[in-house]
Amino acid sequence: ATAGMFSSCLIIDSKYNPRSSVFRIQYFRTSVAFRDEVITVKTPAFAESVTEGDVRWEKAVGDAVSEDEVVCEIETDKTSVQVPSPAAGVIEELLVPDGGKVEGGTPLFKLKKGATEAPKSEAPAAASPPPSAAPTPPPPPPSAVGPIPTTMPPVPPVPAHAMDTKPVSAIKPTAAQTAPSAQAEGGAKSARTESRVKMNRMRLRIAQRLKEAQNTCAMLTTFNEVDMSNITEMRKVYKDAFLKKHNIKLGFMSAFVKAAAYALTDQPAVNAVIDDTTKEIVYRDYVDISVAVATPKGLVVPVIRNVEGMNFTDIEKAINLLGEKARKNELAVEDMDGGTFTISNGGVFGSLFGTPIINPPQSAILGMHGIFDRPVAVGGKVEIRPMMYVALTYDHRLIDGREAVTFLRKIKSVVEDPRVLLLDM
């Protein structure tokens, strides 16, 4: 039998002899379920490329939690892992300090299952006296000056000879008098304060990877501009029907992702990578595009896989799914592993022009920017068109200028006229 608490129960038999005053009594014992069992919750296993993370607590000791409610988040180099409560209960003890490092299997906290309130021993320590319960200050000592009058005596008039004949504007205060007021005004206008915030693990990893890219790659950037008239008109005409049929909005990102997949197939060197350990060039016959997404914790790059076989609808659905997971902080490490090429869209923040940095170990990155009306020459005439600057930063150790420029011109031709995809031009 399972060891535990036992309770005795008594049953009085209602069938008794009326002539007798003796009742038939039966005792039996039942085992009580482990409702107040205390369990230790451990750190979940990480992906192969992640070894440790930092803990950020969402709950404190004594907090009641429901089943599957998030107790803490473990921030790793690539993403955050949420740790839910396995059952309803009360947090009894935190085994790792806030910001502490943990590995897979490290004990995190103790949970008292089934409890709905904090332990009694913690209540007095956590309680604080209400403001109304503050002790009454002792009465002031008796004074020998008698009661204080409720009315003030009249102020005697100032003699005329004591008045200063200078006008008010001519009376200047001394430096000692002006200093306090000047300091008060200056302090109210601008407080010269500083604050220090520890860099989280994801931000540290991003900084490290960006510096590694600068130190490793021979980065060079080439530019072009795209006339967005046709793609804007296509979106305007079909966006409502697209939303009605697929329950998702039609954006510009799918056009650039599909154009990039088309151009990467045409220029395989841009989709390749240098293996520095073996001094070999690795060519890929598949296209996995990383899409840079800004989150409050830093830049993440979830991957859309096998884009070469996807259409606009498939791409929009994949982008929407990854965006939702990023906003809810539900991206897993598997969502960001791999990737053969990256697209960064600074245009959503209003960027006009910029040079993106390669996302290692990839060899190139496409930078999109904002769409602005500009005068351009069309058929020998000046017209106002919605234009976008695009930039391709590439590793010049692997990709030559001819290949980079040709790749960017492919992007331009497909976005400006999507019929190029149908004709395989």
Give the mean pLDDT: 79
Coarse shape? elongated
The tally of beta strands, per DSSP, is 21
Order of helices and strands: EEEEEEEEEEHHHEHHEEEEEEHEEEEHH
Question: What is the SS-derived class?
Answer: alpha+beta
Percent of residues in helices: 10-25%
Q: What kind of sheet is the major sheet?
A: 7 strands, mixed
List the total number of helices.
8
Q: What Rg is obtained from the alpha carbons, in whole angstroms? A: 36 Å
- In what range is the share of β-strand residues? 25-35%
**Which spans of ≥5 residues are poorly predicted at pLDDT below 50?**
1-34, 120-134, 142-153, 160-176
State the separation between the terminal residues, measured CA to CA: 77 Å
Keywords:
425 residues; alpha+beta; 4-stranded antiparallel sheet; 8 helices; elongated
